[in-house]
Structures are given as structure tokens and as C-alpha cells.
Write a structure and sequence with these properties.
about 110 residues, alpha+beta, three-stranded antiparallel beta sheet, two-stranded antiparallel sheet
Length: about 110
């Protein structure tokens, strides 16, 4: 009986660690964006979910902040979960200077990074 319990515990622990580690990876690592133009970011990660203006003639966003939705808000038993966003700030030459994950409540304005 102890042997079965030990094996079950080991299997459960392995499963939990695997689930936790799989949540650590993803395409939204802030350091992957710094120093790239918006065009390079779009080619690698897809169109932005949030863009305040249209890009210039070369397809580059300048002096603005664009973003991706990392986790959409979901309804739950006690209300809705928060939405998680990644905002990327571009300078006057169109190069990403900062990238920051932001948690936003549904129905609220997005906080400035």
C-alpha cells in the first residue's frame, strides 16, 4: 500500500511541476521586444491587439504604445478575472524602449506603463 501511495504521490508531483513549468514559457517575454521595431515585432508575434494610431508609410509605429492581450478576462463564480496585457513603448525612431505586463480590471482604463 505504501508503495502505491509513493508512486501516486510521485506521479502527482511530476504532473504539477510540469503544469507549472509550461506556464512559465510563452511568447510574451518582455526582453524579446526591446530594441526591435514594431515591424520586426509584428513579423515575429503577429498584429497588435491595441494600437492607438496607424503606422507610418514604412509600417512602423513611432512615439506610441502598442500591446498584446496575454490573458483575456473570464467570467467566474465571484465576478470576472483580470485581463493581462503587454504594452510596448516605441520611441521617435520606432524602436521598442520598454515592454511591460499590466493587469487591468474589465471596464477600467488601461494603466500607463
Amino acid at each position: 500500500m505504501k508503495r502505491i501511495l509513493r508512486r501516486l504521490t510521485a506521479a502527482l508531483l511530476t504532473l504539477c511541476v510540469g503544469i507549472m513549468l509550461s506556464g512559465c514559457s510563452g511568447k510574451y517575454d518582455e526582453d524579446d521586444y526591446i530594441g526591435k521595431t514594431s515591424q520586426e515585432i509584428i513579423e515575429q508575434f503577429g498584429e497588435f491587439d491595441y494600437a492607438p494610431e496607424t503606422p507610418d508609410g514604412n509600417g512602423i509605429y513611432k512615439n506610441c504604445r502598442c500591446g498584446y492581450t496575454i490573458k483575456e478576462a473570464e467570467p467566474g463564480f465571484l465576478g470576472r478575472s483580470d485581463e493581462v496585457l503587454l504594452f510596448i513603448s516605441f520611441d521617435e525612431s520606432g524602436v521598442a524602449q520598454t515592454a511591460r505586463k499590466v493587469t487591468a480590471r474589465v471596464g477600467k482604463t488601461f494603466p500607463c506603463p
